[in-house]
Design brief:
The structure holds 2 protein chains of 2 kinds. Chain A is about 0% helix and about 55% strand. Chain A has strands at about 5, 10-15, 20-25, 30-40, 45-50, 55-60, 65-75, 75-80, 90-95, 105, 110-115. Chain A contains no helices and 11 strands. In chain A, the strands form 2 sheets. In chain A, strands 2, 4, 5, 6, 9, 10 and 11 form a 7-stranded mixed sheet that branches. Chain A has a 4-stranded antiparallel sheet with strand order 1-3-8-7, with no helix packed on it. Chain A is globular. In chain A, a hairpin with a 5-residue loop joins strand 4 (about 30-40) and strand 5 (about 45-50). Chain B is an all-beta fold. In chain B, about 0% of the residues lie in helices and about 50% in strands. Chain B has no helices and 12 strands. Chain B has strands at about 5, 10-15, 20, 25, 30-40, 45-50, 55-60, 60-65, 75, 85-95, 100-105, 105-110. Chain B is globular. The mean pLDDT of chain B is about 90. Classes of the chains: A mainly beta, B mainly beta.
């Protein structure tokens, strides 16, 4: 149980275009979803926390107008990278928490974004 | 702020060798501590956790003890297998922070026959 999927698993796009990444909790309802970014050989950096039905909370230094997060249902959150540039190329990972107060997050397999 | 420091990898061991991956942390409060594992091509999976000082988390033969006095949470396994080859991440979450995780940089383990 507690499976989280991401789609797509990888995407290549041209500079200036927007890319949407989906994160789904397949067998549970997620009150909270988290979005991380992982650079090569570096740790996961939390970008934002999203609660179903409310605005996402962004970490310091993360541009909310560039990384649009929508958590429209208890099983789906989306991250849209708007006007992507090569420096946005990275590995984006989502996770989901089953209920408020739980300290365990379930992670998706990640999405590799390459911006040409 | 919070931080987690892990030993740099890669760590290469022969099968049945003893494993230790060091992890130390800095936190202002009383964090919960975690080890996550990422197998090739897969997402991070929770391996074990400990929520208070002196707790020992264990799973699949791996163990880690929450040492408040040394602010450490070292991962150990007595006899590794080839199937343990993966990247291991130490992480913490602090009470009252909506369970936001702070990760270490990860340590790649390669186990050979």
């Amino acid at each position: 149980g507690a499976v989280v999927s991401q789609h797509p698993s990888w995407v290549i796009c041209k500079s200036g275009t927007s890319v949407k990444i989906e994160c789904r909790s397949l067998d549970f309802q997620a009150t909270t979803m988290f979005w991380y970014r992982q650079f090569p050989k570096q740790s996961l950096m939390l970008m934002a926390t999203s609660n179903e039905g409310s605005k996402a909370t962004y970490e310091q230094g993360v541009e909310k107008d560039k990384f649009l997060i929508n958590h429209a249902s208890l099983t789906l959150s989306t991250l849209t990278v708007t006007s992507a540039h090569p420096e946005d190329s990275s590995f984006y990972i989502c996770s989901a928490r089953q209920r408020a107060g739980a300290d365990t997050q379930y992670f998706g397999p990640g999405t590799r974004l390459t911006v040409l | 702020g919070n931080s987690v420091t892990q030993m740099e990898g890669p760590v290469t061991l022969s099968e049945e060798a003893f494993l230790t991956i060091n992890c130390t942390y800095t936190a202002t409060g009383y964090p919960s501590l975690f080890w996550y594992v990422q197998y090739p091509g897969e997402g991070l999976q929770l391996l074990l956790k400990a929520t208070k000082a002196d707790d020992k988390g264990s799973n699949k033969g791996f163990e880690a003890t929450y040492r408040k006095e040394t602010t450490s949470f070292h991962l150990e396994k007595g006899s590794v297998q080839v199937s343990d080859s993966a990247v291991y991440f130490c992480a913490l979450s602090e009470t009252g922070t909506a369970s936001k995780l702070t990760f270490g940089t990860g340590t790649r383990l390669q186990v050979t026959l």
